[in-house]
Amino acid sequence: MHHVTDHAITGASPLSAAVIESTGLWTPPHSISNEELVESYNAWVERWNAENAEAIEAGEAEPKSSSSVEFIEKASGIKSRYVVSKDPILDPEIMAPRIPERPNSEISILAEMAVNAAKDALKRAGKTAEDVDAVICACSNLQRPYPAIAVEVQDALGVQGWGFDMNVACSSATFGLQAAADMIGGGHARSILVVNPEICSGHLNFRDRDSHFIFGDVATAILVTREELADGGWRILGTHLKTQFSNNIRNNFGFLNRAAPEHAAEADKLFIQEGRKVFKEVVPLVSAMILEQLDTLGLTPADLKRMWLHQANLNMNRMIAHKVLGKEMDETYAPVVLDQYANTSSAGSIIAFHLHSGDFEGGEKGLICSFGAGYSAGTVFVEKR
Ligand code: CO8
């Protein structure tokens, strides 16, 4: 077993301990079932094949295949997803969300979602904006480069101090948690709100059969507080982050697109992935990381009552849980929210934690764990106070 001597190297708690005091959740009002999504996709395919019949006949174009509800559920575990804009996604003419642009005098939609989740978290902790010193907006799709969404959220909540945005794709929340815990440990803030507004439907290609079902929209918030100032909550025992470059999940949308307009409409300006490769490469990376960090903290898998894993794919979570535990996963040990929410990028493990942690007694331990594009992975071990 390792001895914890230096928190910077081992990932153990920093100078002053930080606590997850509460979490908050905002769920969009609309939900799309697999049946609805597949019906719309297949209507588009039928139309596309009819319109391109001549080219298909001449061997100049491949006919498009239909999508299937059974495939989606079996391959991913997803049954439905929440979205901020439903009808346009299901309209075969559009197949994208439609979110009216707001004037600069109004709060932006991403900030509004984050504020909703943040208010929920503050209320649950019995705290107000006056108790908070900073806002970190950690998510995978930022609406604009500046001013930072976090600063807009800070303003809307009335938080004095500072805010900044960060993006580590699916691992944004765990990276944000470590950043917040370290800044609290370093004495820079009493409490930090980490918010994760995710409009994943904005960058999803609903005309790509391989991925049209993967994502949903949501916002989560995490209130991280200096231990002495927190009532209850979850002590952060240790955090660890890892990145390893991969092109297997990529999105080439960006501010330089206008400098190469001939490529601006290409599919890689939306989410693209090699799903099989991601699955094969990320499962061993994450399970090894969890086992190493357990060891570093002097814990064994049996010491964990629960793992709140990133919600991308049910089979992936089953394999990770199996590798860590050495036996079949059950949903009490690794709860699933993917069926209802689909992949909500950075928010997934936080939704699982938010909805499935009420039964913990003081001293019981669990793990929040993310993994995704980058590749990036983060572990946050917590103990109920
Ligand atoms: N309907 C019916 N059949 C289908 C469909 C469909 N919709 N799609 C594919 N098929 C067929 C294929 O054609 C293939 O047929 P054949 O065997 O004849 O060639 C067969 O089904 C199997 O296809 P795959 O091998 O692709 O299927 P998998 O079993 O691998 O399942 C998954 C696909 C579900 C994508 C799976 O690979 C997976 O989940 N992998 C992990 C992916 C993952 O975790 N990615 C993380 C990405 S998220 C992230 O990091 C955040 C990014 C930031 C957010 C961006 C917001 C948009």
Feature tags:
32% helix; two-stranded antiparallel ribbon; nine-stranded mixed beta sheet; 385 residues; disordered N terminus; alpha+beta; Peroxisomal Thiolase, Chain A, domain 1; binds octanoyl-coenzyme A; globular
Structural class: alpha+beta
Overall 3D geometry? globular
Query: What fraction of the residues are assigned to beta strands by DSSP?
Result: 15-25%
Kindly state the percentage of residues in helix: 25-40%
Number of DSSP strand runs: 13
What Rg is obtained from the alpha carbons, in whole angstroms?
21 Å
The CATH class assignment of the domain at 236-384 is: Alpha Beta
Heterogens: octanoyl-coenzyme A
Number of helical segments with 4 or more residues: 12
- Would you identify the CATH architecture of the domain at 236-384? 3-Layer(aba) Sandwich
Sheet having the most strands: 9 strands, mixed
Q: How widely separated are the two ends?
A: 25 Å
Mean pLDDT across all amino acids: 94
**Unreliable stretches, pLDDT < 50, 5 or more residues?**
1-10
What name does CATH use for the topology of the domain at 236-384? Peroxisomal Thiolase, Chain A, domain 1
The CATH superfamily name of the domain at 236-384 is: Thiolase/Chalcone synthase
Topology pattern, helix = H, strand = E: HEEHHHEHHEHEHEEEEEHEHHHEE
Strand order of the largest sheet: 5-4-6-7-1-8-13-12-11
